[in-house]
Amino acid sequence: MEFWGLFIVALMPVVKVLLITALGTLLALDSFDILGNNATKHLNIMVFFVFAPALVCGNLAKTITLKSMIMLWFMPLNVLLTFVIGTFLGWLLIKVTRVPHHLQGLVLGCCSSGNLGNLPLIIVPAVCKERSNPFGDVDVCYRNALAYVSLSMALGAIFVWSYAYNLVRIFSPKISNVIEVDDATQNPVSRTETDPENLSKCSTKAMHVKELEIQCTTPNGQAKVPKKENIMKQLKIIAEKINLKVLFAPCTIGAIVGLIIGVVPQFRKLLVVDHAPLRVVQDSIDMLGDAGIPAMTLLVGANLLKGLKGVRKQVPLIVGITMVRFIAMPAIGIGIVKGAVHFGFIHHDPLYHFLLLLQFALPPAVSMSTITQLFGAGEGECSVIMLATYSCAAFSLTLWCTFFMWLVL
Prior knowledge:
Order of helices and strands: HHHHHHHHHHHHHHHHHHH
Keywords: Auxin signaling pathway, Endoplasmic reticulum, Membrane, Transmembrane, Transmembrane helix, Transport
InterPro entries: Mem_transp_PIN-like, PILS1/3/4/5/7
Strand content: under 5%
Function: Involved in cellular auxin homeostasis by regulating auxin metabolism. Regulates intracellular auxin accumulation at the endoplasmic reticulum and thus auxin availability for nuclear auxin signaling.
Number of domains: 2
Low-confidence stretches: 175-218
CATH topology of the largest domain: Na+/H+ antiporter like fold
Oligomer: single chain
GO biological process, one term: auxin-activated signaling pathway
Family: Belongs to the auxin efflux carrier (TC 2.A.69.2) family.
Shape: globular
Structural class: mainly alpha
C-alpha cells in the first residue's frame, strides 16, 4: 500500500474521533447546556454499567472461539506489558515533572492504558477493507481483524477497569484524604464483649483502623482461637480488603460472559450463529454496545471545557505523556514483538503482528475520562491531555502504522 493511501486509512478514523469530541465540547457549552455536569455524570454511569459491558460482550461472543483463544495466547501478555511498561514510564515522568499528588493517578493511568478498543476497532478492519491492503484477501483479513480487535478490546477493558481504575482511585483526593471511623470505634467496650457476632466483626474492622488500636477480647480475655479458625479469619480479612466490586467491574463481567458464549459451542449455537433461537438477545446486546463508542467520545469533548483554563500549567505534563505514548512505548513494543516472533512465541500472521505493535502506539484510553469523572480527580486535566494526545495521534498513528506494516511484511 502506498504511503498516502495508508495515511488516509489511518487518518480518517482519528478524524472521526476528533469530530465527535468537538461535538461533545459544543454540546457542553452554556448556550446549549445539553452535556452539563449532571448530564455527563449520568452518561458516565450509563457507559460504565451498560454500554461498555455490552460492547465488549457482544464483540467477543461473535468473534472469539476456543481455537482462536489458543492461537492468540500471547496477546494478554502483550497487553499486560503495555500497562506495566507504561506505568514505569509514567512513574519516571512523575519524578521528573513533580506532578501533584492528586494528578499522579491520572498520569499513571494515561501512560499505562492505551485505547485498545475504539481505535483498533476502527483502524484495523478499515485497513482490511482497502483493495490494496497488504494482508491478503479482504474477507479473511476482515474476519480475522474483528477477532483480534475484539480480544484486544476485552483485555483493554479488563485492565483499564481493574488496573487504571484503581490507580486513579488510590490517588483520588476523595479517597486518600477521608478517614472513615466506624461507630464501633466510638465505644469499643460495650456490645462487643458480650455478643460473639460483634466480636468477630470487631476483629475484622480493627485491621482497617490500626491507628485507633481497637482491642477486641473475649469476656475472660483468655480464649484461644483454633488454628483452622484463625486461618479462615485471616482469609476473610484479605477477601474484605480486596474490592471485588471494582475488580469485577461491569466491563470485566461483560468480557467473561462474552468469552464463555464464544468459547462454548452450545452457547454459540443458541445465541450467535445464524438462525439461533435466541439471536434476538445477541442483537440487543450489539445495539447497546454500538452506543458505547460515541458516548465515551462525546464525554471526552464535554469534559474538555473544564481544563482549557489550565492548559499552560499542564504543558510539561502533556508533552511528557505524549512522548511516553507515541515515542517511548512504540519503540519498546517493536523490540518486544520482534523478539517474540524471533523466538517463535507468535504464530506467523502479519495482521496479528501488526495489531500487537499497534497496541504500543495508541493514545490514552477514552475510559480515563469516565474514570476521572467518577472520582472527580483531574477531569479538566484529563480532557486537555485527551485533546492533545488525540490531536497528535492523527499524525503519529499514521506514521507508526506505515512503519509497522513495512516491518511485518
